[in-house]
């Protein structure tokens, strides 16, 4: 039997922003439980929660101070256990975010286990490696006179994955969560977890980050897979880059490393048919027919796609959703994608993130009421609310809404397995038109342009159209598409 994640739709939740249950303006785990019925109705297979661990909040969860507990703002371990149980009762699995590359500088290990980090003598950078803010990746610690390595902020010292003790500790951390019923992990920067030991090695990639030691990265991935196998059915979905050496397929190892690779390209691309075919084509080529990738258009790191791709035009958002949910492999929806939630303009005085990513992290828009259905009416949420005219309540019972379209697309991936898992084969189409065959009998076409167009050579029934009046239309040879219209046709 195929594993549960093949062709699955995952739903990413930024826990601080999904649903507040206790009126402090911060989303929490009990809030997610409250909204599980929405997610079951939507039809998603699993939730990926951004880090839920106690954190010093220099990077909102990505600077972990304890890998085996829950951030007090989000609740308790009991709340997490309850979320796992309640989700499972609705057929939904829970994935956590594993952050193995670095801890917080407030993690007790940074004081008690100095050798679990990477140090050099003195205050000078030993090389040209850069960190997330394009400064040196080395920070001097005056308490010991040495400098430590950090791929991201100075508050996020990199763990030294050459240490066998670090590897053993993470084996225990994975096992701990698997035993609690966690269905798998999204693994932050999985393809780069072990850094080169050779400090003279040149910095990697366009951002000149610390270079990985690939052989050791693979060794670590195999260890994690080993732990996962002991529990059965657990997913390792690792963040990878298309330019990672050896190609994406290398990260599957001999079927003993990652289950799914998660490249980034779509989340930063433009909505041009040519560009998208280039991205999807090169990811597919890089997979070399082995396994599949996870596709995602919005996330907690990038500009939400309805803004990046749609400039507020709902037709574009709908075409993009159809294109996305018409891709082979795993699709990840970011909370709010299903209603076409756009980027929020967060004024500087309300900013919480050092890298300006707040605009994609504002509270879920449940209803057009004070508090947005996210928190109590008189409470100021931790980040400001966006445009509440776009909300779940107003779209839920409207068969023509974006939310209904999204739900029907997810259901269609189940009805037409080709849509979820069939081979991707681009079709020659007029400029600005995205068209591909999926398996033997499904065709996905999206007119990503402002001009009406025609595609010839398509036969079958329109199974789903962004213009819902066209659902069920018979296509005999020529398919007409209005600007920004998309359809799934199957014979
Ligand atoms: C990953 C996360 C990002 C975070 C960074 C540092 O790229 O997606 O949000 O800031 O890692 O942990
Ligand atoms: Ca709360």
List the helices and strands and how they pair.
Elements: E1 9-13, H1 29-34, H2 36-42, E2 46-49, H3 77-89, E3 93-98, H4 109-112, E4 119-121, E5 138-141, E6 146-149, H5 164-179, E7 184-187, H6 214-231, E8 235-239, E9 260-262, H7 273-287, E10 292-296, H8 305-308, H9 314-325, E11 330-334, H10 392-396, H11 402-415, H12 417-421, E12 424-426, E13 433-438, E14 442-447, E15 453-465, E16 474-481, E17 486-490
Parallel strand pairs: 1-2, 1-11, 2-3, 3-7, 7-8, 8-9, 9-10, 10-11
Antiparallel strand pairs: 4-6, 5-6, 12-13, 13-14, 14-17, 15-16, 15-17
Helix pairs in contact: 5-6, 9-11
The structure holds alpha-D-glucopyranose and calcium ion.
List keywords for this structure.
eight-stranded parallel beta barrel, 2 domains, binds alpha-D-glucopyranose, six-stranded antiparallel sheet, 12 helices, 17 strands, TIM Barrel, globular, 491 residues, Immunoglobulin-like, alpha/beta, binds calcium ion
Please characterize this protein's 3D structure:
The structure is a single chain. It is built from 12 helices and 17 strands. The protein is an alpha/beta fold and 491 residues long. The protein has 2 domains: 9-103 and 163-417, Glycosidases (TIM Barrel, Alpha-Beta Barrel); 424-490, Golgi alpha-mannosidase II (Immunoglobulin-like, Sandwich), CATH 2.60.40. An 8-stranded parallel β-barrel has the order 1-2-3-7-8-9-10-11. Strand 9 (260-262), helix 7 and strand 10 (292-296) form a beta-alpha-beta unit. The longest helix is centred in the middle third of the chain and has 18 residues, at 214-231. It is globular and about 75 Å long. Alpha-D-glucopyranose (GLC) binds next to loops.
